[in-house]
Write a structure and sequence with these properties.
658 residues; alpha+beta; Alpha-Beta Plaits; 6-stranded antiparallel sheet; 4-stranded antiparallel sheet; 59% helix; extended
């Protein structure tokens, strides 16, 4: 439940030992190297060192990685491999990585082979697209029976072209007949946009014919490169298209037959990525002719191990604590039970390095709130079992692992709260037994049924909310005391504790004991007086008074925060009501065979939808209660995640040989 202490490291080493050191630091995977280029703006540094980078090698490796990724996309598209439900990294031994490095040319050849096949598909597809375009342009002229290359004879000229659909073809034909006479004008076809026409006339009047046609919106069409009639060309094109489609299918089948290359190309891509990271890290180094300089961050608990590596490579080094103005990376450390809830923290923002990691504290509240809002034992069992199976079957990592494990815990919480409230897929046991057994069997809640006593759940929800808010305020007070600000802890948090607890005791304590009313009254008076007198203590003049008034006015904000926890009641009731409605709808066809089938179908579909909707609602609102009500009391965000220099692979997980 803490943020790991970091140490700043500065290292000077010999250029001859640099490669070995980089490899060892990458294998160790616990040192974040920081960019040193800003030092080059200092004249003293700029006169001594230069950046250590090789952009040509970086570009080369990036190009190879890009080709490998393209090859994998091709196999994904045309291959016959089934995609798993969850993609996980495949485990390989270190000696396998050595094989990949030594056989790089062979692996590059496999990539080139797949991309070569894809290039053939691309070329064939390009030709096919051109043929499709030709088909579209020729189809309107299918009834034109003259050779397309025929544009004139010794005595005549031939025009092919289009006219707007609005043009009157009959009137145009008559005009040509009356004004010129010796013109053969034909409408080959028409659609909603155009008339496709052909005209043949003596050469001595072709200019006059063309002028008349253009007056009516005529645009000449030419089929350069085509020979023979339209029908002959369409037949030829259809044959070529069939041949190209067959070629594409054959090449795609060949790619599918070589889908087994996927794993080796993935290994090749990750090997290149490791090499690229090594090259890129050089840009964060500065060097002279014989030495190099690096700086970075190391978790304090890893300092001794790093010293061993540096000593082995003959480096001069220095460790120190972070300074106030430095941006220190954040690394959280929590127990295995709490780690899944780090996903909620990370979705919001990491805490600042000088802040507080509340994950271990809010994880309990999160699971409880989620369980109350879903509150059906049947749903909880399904969630927990499904997540358990996924965790056992798939080697999940990172955020996906955290989310599935989080839902597993939330499923357990939902099961507990569902049993307490008596929700087992709504009231399906009662509905089924009453319909088909002739006797209603009811699973009694261990505690109470919120549908029968919603006010009780509302009180519980608000009480949990108060505890949640008080915990957040307590963390704030702890942070203030840790910084030596005892007065701030008393004035900013202590008086609010007095005020809120006092108001609750004053207004509702009489239901428990008459004496609590008087105690609550004086507690709230003392608390409000303290807030009024100390709220403006950091201000000057009239600000001391207005600051105190503004501080007391914040009581409305606290009341609003507490009422926000009524959503626990709302979502909990919604789950139960919808579940019962689903069961009632399923029972409408009675105790017949058809009724049983309908009940099963409605049960499956209805409860699936109810689970999906309310799991999403519980997840969102449980998160919101942390982000707005809880974090708002103390949280300092803005931390940047610790990003150590290590082997970052996408497809494989390298295990040490034993």
């Amino acid at each position: 439940m803490s943020i790991i202490n970091m140490q700043r490291i500065a290292v000077i080493g010999l250029e001859s030992e640099k490669e070995k050191l980089i490899n060892q630091l990458m294998d160790f995977g616990a040192v974040e190297l920081t960019d040193q280029s800003a030092k080059l703006s200092d004249e003293n540094w700029a006169a001594t060192v230069v950046p250590d980078e090789d952009q040509e090698t970086v570009s080369l490796l990036e190009g190879r990685i890009n080709r490998a990724e393209q090859a994998l996309e091709v196999i994904e598209k045309y291959g016959n491999l089934k995609n798993p439900l969850f993609k996980t990294r495949r485990k390989i031994k270190e000696d396998r990585m050595e094989e990949i490095i030594s056989g790089e040319e062979e692996f590059a050849g496999r990539t080139d082979f797949i991309l070569g096949l894809n290039d053939q598909i691309s070329q064939a597809t390009e030709k096919l697209n051109k043929l499709e375009t030709d088909t579209v342009s020729l189809n309107p002229w299918a009834e034109y029976d003259l050779p397309l290359e025929l544009e004139s004879t010794r005595q005549t000229a031939v025009y092919m072209g289009v006219l707007p659909a609005a043009a009157d073809m009959t009137a145009l034909a008559n005009q040509l007949e009356e004004e010129i006479g010796t013109v053969a004008f034909r409408v080959v076809s028409s659609d909603k946009d155009m008339h496709y026409t052909a005209a043949m006339m003596p050469k001595d009047c072709q200019e006059e014919v063309l002028a008349t046609l253009k007056q009516n919106g005529f645009s000449q069409v030419s089929f350069k490169g085509f020979e023979g009639t339209v029908s002959a060309n369409l037949k030829r094109i259809e044959g070529e298209k069939e041949e190209l489609n067959s070629t594409i299918a054959d090449i795609a089948a060949e790619i599918g037959a070589n889908s087994n290359l996927k794993e080796s190309i993935e290994e090749y891509a990750d090997m290149l990525t490791i090499r690229l990271d090594k090259e890129k890290i050089r840009s964060k180094l500065l060097k002279t002719r014989k030495t190099f300089f690096i700086e970075g961050w190391v978790p304090a608990r890893c300092v001794e191990d790093v010293k061993v590596i540096l000593d082995e490579n003959g480096c001069y080094y220095q460790f120190r604590d972070p300074q106030e103005d430095e941006d220190v990376p954040v690394l959280m450390e929590n127990s295995s039970m709490v780690v899944p809830f780090e996903a909620i923290t990370e979705m919001y923002s990491l805490p600042a390095y000088t802040g507080f990691d509340p994950t271990s504290i809010f994880s309990i509240f999160y699971a409880v709130f989620f369980g109350i809002m879903l509150s059906d034992a049947g749903y909880g069992i399904l969630m927990a079992v499904a997540c358990f199976v996924i965790l056992k079957k798939f080697d999940l990592e990172g955020t996906m692992y955290k989310m599935i494990k989080l839902f597993f815990y939330c499923g357990i919480s939902t099961t507990i709260w569902g049993a307490l409230f008596g929700g087992w897929f709504g009231d399906i046991v009662t509905v089924f037994s009453g319909l088909f057994l002739g006797k209603e069997i009811t699973i009694q809640p261990i505690w109470f049924n919120p549908l029968d006593d919603p006010m009780k759940l509302l009180i519980i929800s608000l009480a949990l909310g108060i505890v949640h808010l008080f915990t957040g305020m307590g963390i704030k007070a702890y942070m203030q005391i840790k910084e030596g600000k005892w007065l701030d802890a008393i004035c900013d948090e202590g008086f609010w504790y007095l005020t809120i607890i006092g108001l609750i005791a004053w207004l509702g304590g009489g239901m428990v004991s008459p004496g609590l009313t008087g105690i609550g009254k004086w507690m709230s008076i003392i608390g409000i007086a303290g807030l009024l007198l100390t709220g403006g203590r950091h201000n000057k003049g009239i600000g001391k008074i207005t600051g105190g008034l503004g501080n007391v006015y914040n009581i409305t904000s606290y009341m609003s925060d507490i009422l926000s926890y009524a959503r626990l009641l709302a979502l909990g009731l919604a789950t139960g009501v919808i579940a019962q409605v689903v069961n009632t709808m399923g029972s409408l066809f009675g105790d017949t065979v058809v009724g049983a089938i309908v009940l099963v179908l409605v049960f499956i579909v209805g409860h699936t939808l109810n689970i999906a909707i309310n799991v999403l609602g519980a997840f969102i609102h449980a998160s919101r209660l942390q982000y707005v009500e809880f974090f708002g009391k103390f949280y300092e965000d803005g931390g940047e995640p610790f990003n150590p220099f290590r082997k970052k692979t996408k497809y494989i997980k390298i295990e040490e040989d034993k």
